[in-house]
Amino acid sequence: MFRKPQLLVPYLLLVAALAGAALWWQARPRAETPVLGKVVSSGTIQVGGPFTLTGQDGKRVASSDFRGRYMLIYFGYTTCPDVCPTTLAVMADALAKVDPAGKKIVPIFITIDPERDTPKVLAPYVKEFGDNFVGLTGSVAEIAAVEKQYKVYAKKTPLDDKKGLAGGYGMDHSSVIYLMGPDGRIASYWDELVPPAKLEADLRERTK
Ligand code: NI
């Protein structure tokens, strides 16, 4: 190929430059998606994971109890004045249309305020949204761990700045509806602004 040996060196330099460019392209920093962090090359989102918490009846509940069914999970707190009840109502409406018997999809509300949302507080709250709603609470450490798994943001905010948290508090929190598949992996997610008709259509499609 190289009948003119003086061309060999420039040729090798060119090959090396191309290889370097390819390596740089592979290793270049990529922007992360803003909502849930890292999207891996397979197209799945690394969020979720197994948990064991306490249900509204005071019994321990594990995510593995729901294997084979979809989990529609929302994190919030029972004294939330607006976003949580609105979002839970949208979930309830969609489920009433897509899976009225509650055979395929389990709606789950996980509190981000475990100190106040005891099983006794959760029970009547989740019942408002449907008989098959599961309300989950736990120790502060258990809830912190599950928030980390689901990349949930939650922070106490004083209702009365002068008195601080002693004057009562609300929770500043992220608001994401997660659909976990029968294998426990994330199947889809929406923010609280999802139009009810879209949530219904997406749920129908994703849980076929
Ligand atoms: Ni809320």
SSE pattern: HEEEHEHEHEEEEH
CATH topology: Glutaredoxin
Average pLDDT confidence is 86
- Shape assignment: extended
List the ions, cofactors and other small molecules found in this model.
nickel (II) ion
Structural class: alpha+beta
Low-confidence stretches: 29-34, 37-41
Radius of gyration: 24 Å
Largest sheet: 7 strands, mixed
As a percent range, the share of helical residues equals: 25-40%
How many beta strands in the DSSP annotation?
A: 9
Spatial ordering of strands, largest sheet: 2-1-5-4-3-8-9
Tell me, what is the CATH class?
A: Alpha Beta
Number of domains: 1
Please report the number of helical segments. Answer: 5
Give an overview in words.
The chain is of the alpha+beta class and about 210 residues long. It has one domain: Glutaredoxin (3-Layer(aba) Sandwich), CATH 3.40.30.10. Helices cover about 30% and strands about 25% of the residues. The protein has five helices and nine strands, in the order αβββαβαβαββββα. It has helices at about 10-25, 85-100, 120-125, 140-150, 195-205, and strands spanning about 50-55, 60, 70-75, 105-110, 135, 155-160, 165-175, 175-180, 185-190. The strands form two sheets. It has a seven-stranded mixed sheet, with helices on both faces. Helix 2 packs across helix 5. The longest helix has 20 residues, at about 10-25. The radius of gyration is 24 Å and the shape is extended. It starts with 7 loop residues before the first helix and ends with a helix. Residues about 30-35 and about 35-40 have low confidence and may be disordered. Nickel (II) ion binds near residues 76, 80, 83 and 84. Nickel (II) ion binds near residues 80 and 83.
